[in-house]
C-alpha cells in the first residue's frame, strides 16, 4: 500500500435486527416507572443529559452501593423525554464501560519507517499542540486553524478557537444534515426551526412524513408524540420508497420514486391552490407572493407529477385533501437529515410553503412558537479578537445563504486543489468521526494529508483518530461537567450534567483540555475558572437556583413569560423576513439570483444494473458513534442491505447471503453486507442503515461488521444556496465474489 505523509494508523498498532417493523412505536422505550419502583435506597443518582444523540434527553444516572455505574433513566420533568429514554439512551452506560475507549494521549511517531502512536502524558501532548498551533499561527495566521465539532463538548473548543483568533468552525449537523431546512424556513418564515423541532405533533390531526422515518429515527419526544397522535386518530401520510416503521402506522404510504419528492410537493401545492383548499384568511393576512406562486404552480399538476413520482393523481389529490381537512392542525414534517440531491433548500422551501398555505405555522397541532432559556455569560471573559477572515470569505462567490460554518468548505480549503488565497492548515476535530460522516472519504483524507497538523479529541478510537498527529482521550458525558442544556420547547427548560463517575483511564473533559491549551498560549483570560462547576454555579445562581439544588432537581422548568405558544386568531405578526410576511416567493433567494419559487429539477436515475443507495437510521444506533457500544451491539451488531424480491430473484440471491457493493465511480466496499430480501423496498433502490462497516480494528465489536454507506457515497451534489452536500445520487451494483483489491507499491 502506498504510504502517505500522514498514514492512517489503525490504533491497533499501538501496542496497546433491530426492532420488528410491526412493533408499537412506544415499545422501543424502557418502562422507567418499573425501574423507579425498584430503586435501591443505597444507590445515588446524578443528573445528566444524554449524549447518545442530539435530542439530549435529561436523565438520572444511578450508581449502586459500591459506587459502580448502574443505570440511566429518563428525567420525569423533561419535555424532551417525559421520563422515558429510548434504548440508545439506556444503553449510554456502554459508552462508559467500553474497554475499547481511548485511554491516554497519543502522539504520532515514526519507528523504522512505520508510523505509529506512542502514549504520552498530558503535559507533553498539550505542550506539543500549543507549540504546533503557535507555529502555524505565526506562519499563516490564526485563521488557518479550523475546528470540526459535534456534541456538547465541542463548544469548549469553538471558544478556544475564537480566543485563538479564528472563527473557522463547522459541524456536520449543518452541511450534512439540517442546513437546507434551516435556510428554507429562515427565508420563508424569518426563523429557522432549530432542535428539537417545534412541531405540535401531540395535537396534530394530520402528520406528513416525507423522507422522515420517525420511529427508526428515534427522536424521543417526537416519537412519543407521534404515538399519542396515532392513538388520537391523526392521519399519518408517509412518503418513502421504503415501507418504514412510520409507513406501517400510516393511512397512506406513498412509495415514491426516489429523487422526485419535489414533484410531489409541487403537485400538492397545485391541488391546494387550484382546488382552493388553502387557509384563505391566513394566506391573505400573513403571506406575500401568493399570486406569483399561483401562476408558477399551474403546470405542476398531479398528472404531471405521476410521470415523475409514480404516485397516482387520485392519491395526490386525496392526500392533499386530508391535509386541508386537518388544517391548521397539520404538519408537513421538515425532516432532519435533509441533504439529498443538491436542490434541497428548494425542496424544503416547498415544505415550508405547504405549511404556510395550510396555515399551520404558529397554530395548535401545527408548528408552535418555541421558547428557550438563556443564561448569563461567566464574568470577566474578554471579547474574542476579530479575525481577518472567516469560512464564508474563502469562496465569497459561493453559498451566500449559509448561516453556519460549512464543513466541506473547510475541507476544500485544506485540499491541495484549493483555489482560494485563504487556506486551512491545521484541524482540531472534536466529537465527529469525519471519515464516517463526510461524503467522499478520499477527498477528506487528501485534505487531511495536506494539512500541517491534526488534533483529534474523541472518546473512542474512531477512524478519524487514525489520521491525527495527536489524539486526546475525552471522558464520556457520564464523567464530566458540561454546559447547561438549554433546549427549546413549549416551555423553556434547563438541564444539568454532572459527573456520576470519575473519568476512566487517563481521560479528561474537553473544558479542561481547552483551558490547559489556552494557558499555554497566553489565552488563559478566556477561561477564568479552575473547574467548570464554577461556571454552572454562577449561571444557576443567576437563574435563582444553585448547583447544589440542581444536583437534586436535575431539570429546571421555567415559566413561559408570554402567552405566545400559538398565534391568536387575527393577531398582527411581523415576520423577520424582508417583507415582514411569510414569503411564499422568497425575496432573499431571488436577491441572490436563486429561484424565488421552487422549480422541479430532474435528477439522474440509476443506469441498468445499478440501484439507488438510500440510507437511514436504526432505532438502536446513532450514526457511527454507537456501533461499538457493548449494550447496543447486543441489540444490533451489523446492518443489512434491503433488496426487493424481484431483484433478488434476478440475481439469484438468498436471504443473508453476503455480497459486496460497487458504486458508479468504481468504488468497491471494504466489507461484505448481508442481504435482506423484502417487499418493503422499491425494486430500483437498496437501503441500509448508516454507521456500520468500521475500518478501525480497535473498535473490537464494530470492526468489519456490516458496510459503510459513506464509503459508497462519492458523488456529491452541492446545494448552491448553502453549500450543503446532497448524498443520495449514488448508485450501487452487486458483487457476489470477494473483490481482489489492487495493491499499490509503496
Ligand atoms: P458519528 O459518526 O456518530 O457522528 O456525524 P458525526 O457527529 O461525525 O461520530 C461521532 C464521534 O464522536 C465518534 O467518533 C464518537 O466516538 C465521538 N464521541 C461520542 N461522544 C463523545 C464525547 O463525549 N466527546 C468526544 N470528544 N467525542 C465523542 C453525524 C452527521 O453525519 C449527521 S448529524 C448527519 S444527519 C449525517 N448523517 C449521515 C448519514 O446518514 N449517512 C452518511 N453516509 N453520512 C452521514 N453524515 C452525517
Ligand atoms: Fe438519548 Fe435516545 Fe434521548 Fe437521543 S432520543 S438523547 S439517544 S434517550
Number of strands: 26
**Quaternary structure classification:** single chain
Which architecture name of the domain at 176-370 does CATH use? 3-Layer(aba) Sandwich
- Principal-axes geometry comes out as globular
Assign the CATH class of the domain at 176-370.
Alpha Beta
Q: Percent helix among the residues?
A: 25-40%
**Class from secondary-structure proportions:** alpha/beta
Spans of 5+ residues with little confidence (pLDDT < 50)?
11-24
Question: How many angstroms separate the termini?
Answer: 5 Å
Spell out the CATH superfamily of the domain at 176-370: Dimethylsulfoxide Reductase, domain 2
User: What portion of residues belong to β-strands?
Assistant: 15-25%
What's the story with the biggest beta sheet? Answer: 7 strands, mixed
The kinds of small molecule bound in this structure are:
ligand MGD, iron/sulfur cluster
- Distinct helical segment count: 24
The largest beta-sheet arranges its strands as 5-4-15-14-13-6-7
- What's the gyration radius in Å? 25 Å
Average pLDDT: 94
CATH topology of the domain at 176-370: Dimethylsulfoxide Reductase, domain 2
Question: Please, could you describe this protein's structure?
Answer:
This protein is α/β, with parallel strands linked by helices. Among the domains are: 195 residues, 3-Layer(aba) Sandwich (Dimethylsulfoxide Reductase, domain 2); 125 residues, Barwin-like endoglucanases (Beta Barrel). It has a seven-stranded mixed β-sheet with strand order 5-4-15-14-13-6-7, with helices on one face. β2 and β3 form a beta hairpin. About 2% of the residues have low confidence. It binds ligand MGD and iron/sulfur cluster. Iron/sulfur cluster (SF4) binds next to α2.
